[in-house]
Amino acid sequence: MSGIITTEYIREKYLRRLPTAFCPGCGDGQILGALIRAIEQLNIPKNEIVTVSGIGCSAWIPSPYLRIDSLHTTHGRPIAFATGVKAANPKLKVIVVTGDGDAVGIGGNHLLHAARTNIGLTVIMVNNAVYAMTGGQVAPTTPHEAKTSTTPYGNPAFNLNVSEVVAAAGASYVARWTTWHINRLIESIKKAMNKKGFSFIEVISQCPTYGGRLLNMDHIEMLHYFRDNFRENADGMFRIGEFVDVEKPELTDELEKLIMKVKS
Amino acid sequence: MPFTVKDIMIKKDLCKGCGICIDVCPRNVLTGSDEINEYGLYYPMVSDLKRCIVCRLCELYCPDFAVEVHV
Lengths: 264, 71
Ligand code: SF4
Ligand code: SF4
Ligand code: SF4
Known about the structure:
The complex is a heterodimer of chains A (264) and B (71).
Chain A: H1 7-14, H2 27-42, E1 49-53, E2 70-72, H3 78-88, E3 93-99, H4 100-106, H5 108-117, E4 121-127, E5 130-131, E6 137-138, H6 162-169, E7 173-178, H7 182-194, E8 199-204, H8 208-215, H9 219-229, E9 241-245, H10 251-263
Parallel strand pairs in A: 1-2, 1-3, 3-4, 4-8, 7-8
Antiparallel strand pairs in A: 5-6, 7-9
Helix pairs in contact in A: 2-7, 4-5, 5-6
Chain B: E1 7-10, H1 20-24, E2 30-31, E3 45-46, H2 57-61, E4 67-70
The structure holds iron/sulfur cluster (3 copies).
């Protein structure tokens, strides 16, 4: 059946085991499905891809479910590990799947410098606005006044607009979607994987277990909230779409040129 | 090429009963049921197969790879 990616086909070719450990209705499973569909549509052999994740619920998206080589690394450090993989073998497509707590809270500095150096990684950051795996604590992405398990009276601080920060830091490609915008997300992952330089996709996702409980919303209400509030012409966190799409020199290419120059 | 649906299978051992497939189906083909699976979760059932237009949104949005639309 040409062009149609069925569930049976996905399970057979891309998944090691099911069910996943994610809670019912969690967006992480939907993002796993989007990543698989993007890889399948690009028709990239599985042995040319390495996925890297850190710690958190989102780290379980590639590992252990995806039938593609993966590194499940330490908290906040997947971009650092991925940098090593890319530097060792620049031909590989290196995909980092990380969460907001992992990429911005614990590992924010790695994210900034990977964007600045424009190393050819694709980072998919799941943003559910809390540290979900450890019990729904406040994160750098938690909105002002939002209740979490460690800010029961509301978050006194403000959240970081991560996509804008990564864009300012110098990434070649930056986009934001939500788990409601799955087809757009798939197209965006394909574009990001074909980018030479550093590409970053933020996916606003539902965590019904912690985010939802504190907001008094279930996963379907959260998906409807994404559908009704996130727009390409909106401001701040409600803006979705592509923020940056440019071509510029990539780090491992520049390193290669430097090696040639010094040798000759 | 138009497809005609043969059947829709909800894999009971994978479904977590979240109901997202019921919500995204534009043709109200799926509904909730009183049946529970081995995790004690209510899995959906097909209420009106004839209405299915094989858009596969249910497959695309299911977080647990539990819906199969057979043509
Ligand atoms: S705690 Fe939240 S993010 Fe983690 S698996 Fe459950 S719903 Fe998903
Ligand atoms: S394929 Fe489309 S119409 Fe058919 S059950 Fe799934 S969502 Fe509904
Ligand atoms: S979306 Fe998937 S897991 Fe959720 S109720 Fe439907 S079949 Fe079950």
